[in-house]
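Recap for those who missed Tuesday's class. We walked through two folding examples back to back. For each one, the amino acid string is listed first and its predicted structure tokens come directly after. Nothing is annotated here on purpose, so try labeling regions yourself before you check the end of the notes.
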Amino acid sequence: MKTRALRFGLSALACVISLSAFNAQAADKWNMTVENPEGNSITEVAKDFAKNVAEATNNDLQIRVHSNSVLFKRPEVKRAVQTGQVQLGDVLMSVLGNEDPIFEVDSVPFLARSYPEARKLWEASRSLVEERLEKQGIKLLYAMPWSPQSIYTQKPVSSMEDFKGMKFRAYNPATSRMAELMGAVPTVINVAEIPQAFSTGMINGMLTSPTTGVDTQAWDFVEHYYDVQAFIPKNFVIVNARAFKRLPEASQKAVLEAAAKAEAQGWEAAESETAQLVKTLGDNGMDVHAKAPAELEAGLGKIGQTMTEEWLKKAGSDGQKIIGAYQN
């Protein structure tokens, strides 16, 4: 009897061990490429998203977040997700503007300058963004905004004349075009390369958020910050559609619920931290200009009108739908 009982016990133990091994093998492990460094709010929201997915699925789906573009640089992210080189990617939406103007609607200067306006614009454009991604085998999970984009310069500026010939950092088609209209020379520079670009003279001005200003310690290489709040761009998180569909239904639901939570968290974080970020720039010695000089503001306003008209021509009827929904 003891022998039979021992054999039964060993068989049961073997079954448990085998089942545990099977479950461990069955767990899905995904990689997520994130373009911003540790401590950045977009990165932190991504990490919370991954944590929430793991908890909701009892670790059946584990997402490893790779920050600071160590896996893929900004221009490579969408293609990497589309081809399955990585399951998830976080990328600035407007960087895809050369592919389709709908992706750069949030980077049209002076169209949406506050968070309520930016949220309304996102609600008006989201379905069309999703449609375009779905056609390419990509699913949109969530989007979160940056803090408003403003101007950093090494020398003070008071009018558009002061930008002529300035080597100006650009990061998407819209900011390149804006720099051109300002009379500056646009140069595409990734976030991680900003300090070196200033120190080597590749650029001496930029349009970016106070978030990036703090992340890169902009006070080390520029003196002036003009809080023009030209627009509020977004990063979005996308997933390979086939990888998503292969997940069990419960895991799919967990991902979508975590994504909804991440989007709400992201908008709240961006809005709540903006004032503190601007204060940090000033606390570290930068000359923070709460308002741009009147002549400069007028010149930027004309650029905004020009770029809105240009964007509507490129975006066609879908662009008109977005603007109509946004304004109404």
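Example two. Treat it independently of the first, because the proteins are unrelated.
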Amino acid sequence: MSAPASAPVAARAVELRRLHHDPQLLQVVNVWDVASARAVAALPETAAIATASHAIAAMHGYPDGERIPVDLMLDMVGRIADAVDVPVSADLEAGYGDPGETIRRAIGLGVAGANLEDGLRPIADAVAAVRAAVSAGAAEGVPFALNARTDAWLLGRDRPRDERIADAIERGLAYLDAGATCVFVPGDFDDDVVAELVDGLGERRLSVIGLPSIPPPDRLEELGVARISYGPYPHRLALTALQDAATHLYGGGVLPSGIRPLT
């Protein structure tokens, strides 16, 4: 009897969950198309990659925030998953109106994990979305690695620091209880906030984004963080390099030597 179609993605999902829970910090560099995915996946340090919804939307000419049609988003994350041999965690925003169905379709395209954001919706609604995503994975026979995002810090700037942390922990624990693999709390914060979040959520349960004030990877690993990703910033970095190169060429410069042939 041949293995079910979901077997390869199930194996990748198992590996992706292990990477989140391993004592070593999981670093995932965000990509936006097949070329960027292959370039990152070719590096020996790459254990998994993540997609950036903002960058994929921009590539298609759409603003961020689920303005891109879900079919276009899923087409690209599926192409990325098919192009690399490492697990892919897709940024699927808030689930495009139907988190369970969006996750089910993503799994069918080879995606092993995903971000799902709460946008500070009522906690009951956000928990229901997490449960729907986890249930979709279970129905497909895939232990889906869900990185449940809460915007308690990012969108709560008008609230006191301690209240934002407490809300992130309350929401995060509810998402973990609903089956999430870890909790993504994006924000530009220091060691103290990271330590409080880890203390509240548990070791290897917090995921962060690599903004300027975030501690470096070795410190995050010491603090018990599970994962760091970089959101739209690798895409912005690439476009900055492109503009700088174009300015140099327009100014009479030449292409540098040592350009690597990437496919």
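Answers for example two:
The CA atoms of residues 57 and 63 lie 6 Å apart.
The mean pLDDT is 96.
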